[in-house]
Amino acid sequence: MMKLLCTMQKMLNGTRAVDFLAPLALRLYLAPIFFMAGYNKFSHFESTAQWFGNPDWGLGLPFPEVMAFLATSTELVGAVLLVIGLGVRWISIPLMVTMIVAAVTAHWQNGWSAIADNTFWLFSTERTQGAAERLAKAKEILQEHGNYEWLTESGNFVVSNNGIEFAATYFIMLLVLFFIGSGKYFSVDHWLENKFKCGF
């Protein structure tokens, strides 16, 4: 029995020959997310800065222009660096900070779920329950006055709850990249490490 287990473990360990695929997949998954987020902030920079600074309908952050610039540049530059695999461990740090700030300032009060679908979820809040109620009402209106079957042909109708789920997920993915780096072969970091031997 142990011999069989050892043989299976050796076969499993053989997959480590292509372990560079995991960080590559994380990088290529995260890059367009951060690029689009940064590009949207850049395209509407003035309104982004206003939203960052306004305490009534925004985030109420200090120095909103500076904060908006830092978030925008971190996301845009970060997306490029993730794609080419350059300084991935370094850029993961400000990107993680961005995710923490987003989770705490923009999403925390909405609980966990990014999409309103379950009012009984462990981390639901009053806002989560309100989003679920709006979702139920929207479905009711669409079923009565719209072509509901056509509208839901490709998936269920949803309402955003804007919880911390996505920010937390991206943070965890970045945390993995921070510890394991950009991976072999398909990253500039790998070739710099081979050339200079300084632990990229």
How many domains, as an integer?
2
Measured distance between first and last alpha carbons: 41 Å
Residue runs with pLDDT of under 50 for 5 or more positions = none
Shape: globular
Strand content bin? under 5%
Count up the helices: 9
Helix amount, in percent?
A: 55-70%
Mean pLDDT: 90
What is the chain-wise order of helices and strands? Answer: HHHHHEHHEHH
Radius of gyration: 22 Å
Structural class: mainly alpha
Structure in words:
By secondary structure, the chain is an all-alpha fold. The chain has two domains: 21-111 and 165-200; 115-162, no CATH class. Helix content is 67%, strand content 2%. The chain has nine helices and two strands; from the N terminus they run αααααβααβαα. The chain has helices at 2-13, 21-43, 45-53, 64-84, 88-107, 126-145, 148-151, 165-180, 188-196, and strands spanning 115-116, 159-160. Strands 1-2 form a two-stranded antiparallel ribbon. The radius of gyration is 22 Å and the shape is globular. The relative contact order is 0.14. The mean pLDDT is 90.
